[in-house]
Amino acid sequence: MNSDDYLLEDLNPEQRKAVQHFQGPLLVLSGAGSGKTRVITYRIGYLVHHHGVAPDRILGLTFTNKAADEMKERLAELLPPGKPQGRGPWLGTFHSLGANFLREYVQVLDRGYNRYFTIYDQGDQKKAVKQTMKELDISTEEFNPGMIASMINGAKNELIGPDEYRDEKAGKIDDYMLEIVDRVYRKYQANLREWNGTDFADLLRLTVELLGLEEPGVQRWKDRFEFLLVDEYQDTNHAQYVLARELARPEDNVCVVGDDDQAIFGWRGADVSNILEFEEDYPDAVVINLSKNYRSRKPILRAANSLISNNRLRKSKEMEPLRDEGESIMVYHAGDETDEADFLVQEINRLRRDGVRLGEIAILYRVNPLSRKIEERLVKHNIPYEIVRGTRFYERKEIKDVLAYLRVITNPDDDLSLSRIFNYPRRGLGAKTEERVQACADAQGVSTWEVLTDLEKCPDLTSRQENQLEEFVDLIRGYIEKTQGDYDPVQLVRDMIFDLEYFEQLENDYDVSSAEDRKNNVRELIGQIQEADLEKGSLREFLEDVALESDVDEFEDKGDRVSLLTLHSAKGLEFKYVFIVAFEDGILPHRRSVEESRIEEERRLCYVGLTRAKERVFLSYTDNRFLYGQRFGNLVSRFLKEIPDEELNSRSGGGRDYSSLRSRSSSSKKVSTGKKNWKDFLA
DNA sequence: TCGCCCCTAATTTTT
DNA sequence: TTAGGGGCGA
Question: What is the rounded distance in angstroms from the CA atom of residue A496 to the CA atom of residue A511?
Fold first, then answer.
């Protein structure tokens, strides 16, 4: 025994095997509640302490910043004094790895990108696509820009570039559509280059492309990593799969950790087959199944096991409950959605009386609007709650506005950000003016800023327009100049907001409380810039990473509250008591998933929900649900009968008599027959 | 150009 | 129900 083997003490045999595995490919199937994070962090610790691997030769890839941060924390506790640590392992998301790499090497691609490229998020991307379509005279009514954007993303995630798109997709999608997407994709990509911008998918795609080049710097960077760990491997898309594969080469010291039963992001390009086929990709892979569940009481786990066994596309395995028996799953048949919410209130109060903290309770739902009614009743009964992941901080309009100003200042070619601030706060530069300037820029193949700084390039502007444009250019130029020498970024932003009369604009556009919220958000942003503890004179460092960090709630004080969240965002979390509401066909499984025959992912979603619970699960449904302004007659979820009866404990609640509502709803033309079935919805 | 009103569509979310 | 976008009149 080595003195470093203290790391192995608190691991079970399977976990220990995963931690001790040294070189070569390793697949760790980590069921819910099996101690996955512990295995990953211990494994890194063990590589360093036992095998003497230099920490900076280890790369750990995650999906979220949160997961990466958590790993860093746990690892800090783990790597006790002893060896000088030097540079630590690289722990981060796929995207941040790509972004960092590209900032250093993107110019090697020689396509006009430079290290100050802007990273566009999903919202920006949609706008960019829309603008591109306008330039191409493609109707944004006939073709939904969001849909085109997601098709482009889909292609990028499959590493299909604009030049390959047509050939790759020919025959797979409708010819007409193919033609449109092909054109938009090419032009969109050309625009990104011109604007020195990338979207999220490009961070991966361009990284993969660059790694394929023989450039010595690139190869040195790549060879720096000797051991690779990938968390949540079931969520990788093709680009991420290839990226991991390339980075692992040639030694293939790659350890992937994941659970095919928790793959719930197929709709955004994640490909379960990456994990299902790992053993084919790496024939000499060692496979370890972490099947011991430390989290849930037996009834919960038996229910979850039974449910998920109905999936066909999965590795056959079962979680083994280590915890004791417990209470059965309560199924509540509510009279209507109000009755359902009151059931929650009642049960939560009961738990509370038994000494349960509210923070140990979660209410999970399939679609966000379901939270409304619940919130209403929780408020009414004075139960504190928190919506986990509402609108993300960096997606708020006011934050995007301010960031857009900062981006334009550091990268004026960023047309998209420029367009965002062009007339906000309003300065009399309307859509027509913008359109005209953009058309000039487009015609000459240059960025809008280039045209703006030389208005002669754009002949047919009225003198009034010219004056206003010049004023705008002077404004931006003023800020650009301020960033040339030494300056205090926080002061710059404060001055800018003051000069722009940005707060006044907000006050003008929103009611008092909303404007106040928004102003506070801007103040919060300034606080974050301050906290970022910038090197003297650079906003750039802050802007570089800001697009990749959407974790909001770091700064909010977490009191003792019930958590309300979607099933998707519950992944990776655990609570003592879990309520899953609207356990109804059409909602879970969702109607659209049923229509598109994607039941298995819905079942996994349900599985994820159940396995969040440590002590007890409550399922509720109603055949009388008011949602989207209509009343629906839903059936209980088909998943209910996939859970053995003996694990269930059913109850029914009263509801109002809805037959009388028929007359009332007849005033609404839409609902003349009272209740509707999901089947009829949008039929 | 601005602002209001009407219409429509409505999973899931991270980067 | 409600948010967001487009159309239209001032």
Answer: 23
